[in-house]
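Lecture 7 notes. Example A: sequence first, then its structure tokens.
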Amino acid sequence: MPQTATPKLTVLDELAWRGLLHQQTEGLAPHLAAGARAVYCGYDPTAPSLHIGNLIPVMLLVHLAKAGHRVVALVGGGTALIGDPSGRSSERPLLDVAAIDAQAAKIHAQLERVFAAAGAGGVTLANNADWLRSTALIEFLRDTGKHFSINYMLAKDSVQSRLEGGISYTEFSYMLLQAFDFLELNRRLGVTIQVGGSDQWGNLTAGVELLRRSASVEGHAFTAPLITTSSGKKFGKTEEGAVWLDGGMTSPYKFFQFWVNTEDADAERYLRMFTLRSRDDITAIGAAHAAAPHERGAQRALARDVTTLVHGAEAARVAEEASRIVFDKKAEAAAITDAVFETLAAELPSARFDGAELPVLDLLEQALGQSRSAGRKLLQQGAVTVNGVKLGADALTVPASAAVRGRWFLVRKGGRDVAIAELRGATRA
């Protein structure tokens, strides 16, 4: 019997396998299959950086670009002056134009770097300030507002969730502005598809309606799910707050550590969502992780890939090496580069001293919060090592000659506490 050909997987199949597909308008699949389409996603510049939750729609655009579609990343320099009510229980504080413009420029730069790192060439960057800030109110109400009834707008989840506590007309009008963006991008760039998170579904479908009613254009939308961890926690939140893509707000080391600390039950799922690894590769990593979960191989592959995507290969390498040293008690201090020591000094308890020797009790006090009497007791117990050498009870100083390149000391107290000491006044080897 003749063999039946295996059906070719579509980009929607790929997105569904990766867990990136949640809702979609009817007819989306044939619309995508009919040829290259222009697709856009909007990003809100009400903060000076994107956070890791924004990587989900970024990955949507990356996969669409790699499938041959034209993608547009839109920064909301106009809509940010209003504020999106989606997913919020109260009004956003309004920012001034200068702050929004500065933040929009930073977010454009972040998007450009990530798309380039992902190999998604040809992404168009746009800013809705280019048309919204010059749009006349009367014209907007006549040409756009007339297509939406109050009943239609009140039925949207982003409005319904705010009715009891109150919503201003300013934020109530947000969905009309986002719908107008869809229409404007269709006119300028031929965009017929909008993507976003599932909390944006109401705004996205309003844009589809405006394209149909105002321009007789077939438009479509689809969303990715909002992510939670397997334990039910909100994804992307730590005790310190959001995990940002800006290295000055969340360092590459902390960024790497966030992914390394992923729960076992989520590691393979996040590899599908946040990396470009193949199905076979992810399956193999998942199998190896299941056989030896204590090695955290899936988490390290995830952390390496996402940190490289956002911060570059060198920053990812330094962050990974710094992470390894913290947990590897046998790590050779002499093999640690200055870049890794500098990262560790910025992230771990540390102390700096002038002179030609390291004062051990001062180090334990300044970096690890030990009183001098407690420090002496730790030395008597043999609980302190410096650059891999266990200190004796009378080792109150360590000479610069024992420092790495005459400068660095990797200090461990017991099995868990790690600190970095630096000599600034010694002659360095």
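Example B, a different protein, same format:
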Amino acid sequence: MTYCVGLCLQDGLVLLADTRTNAGPDNIASFGKLSVVAPGDRVIAMMSAGNLAVTQAVTARVIDAVGLDPNEPINTLLTVKSMYEAAELVGAAVKRVYQSVAPSYNMQSFMFDASIILAGQIEGDRMRMFHIYAAGNFIEATPDTPFFQIGETKYGKPILDRVARYDTPLDGAVKLALISMDSTLRSNFSVGLPADLLVYHRDTQRIEVQHRISEDDEYFQQVRTAWSEALRRAYRDLPAPPWMS
């Protein structure tokens, strides 16, 4: 399992993805779930959750054109003309990967599971973020719903529901993403550090921050400690229930 969160805001994008996979008492591995293309005229990022073989095949197809039919025109995230076209490309890649592995379903214990957050901006196009499902269909983030989560979503959702707004500044959104990740890390063993952070400022076509957060990251430790103390303080300050003697 994994946890990824993306916020598409008035000022830009904040994306955060953990790297844990194959979690178990004696089987822990790390794989990057955040892939980025930024050739100069665009910044497009993809975060993935689900079956690693499936999501890696989709990523290879849409970034490196791996697995394309020789008669197909080469179209990747580096060549699409709009973010909507990028979402269609990724959705089609999910369908093609499904078609390639579906015959093996009855022969092996295999679950086709893939969820993808695709976000970015191409020069001349507006910034957009999409949630792409295992069926290849997708929905788009809006000012009313400015964040998406994939993977182990339930533990990190309350803080986002309460605080995340379209006009949240990017530095505030980074704090929200880190608190959301910390809440998930504390409650689910299948999510783990390091985590990959990307911050993009609207209309710049360049990455503002790309940072890997490990256990010894000083700022992340400050955030998780301060948040825990703030919760304990708020709990202590709540009035006693009036029906208790």
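Note on Example B: The two ends are 45 Å apart (CA to CA). The longest helix spans residues 218-237.
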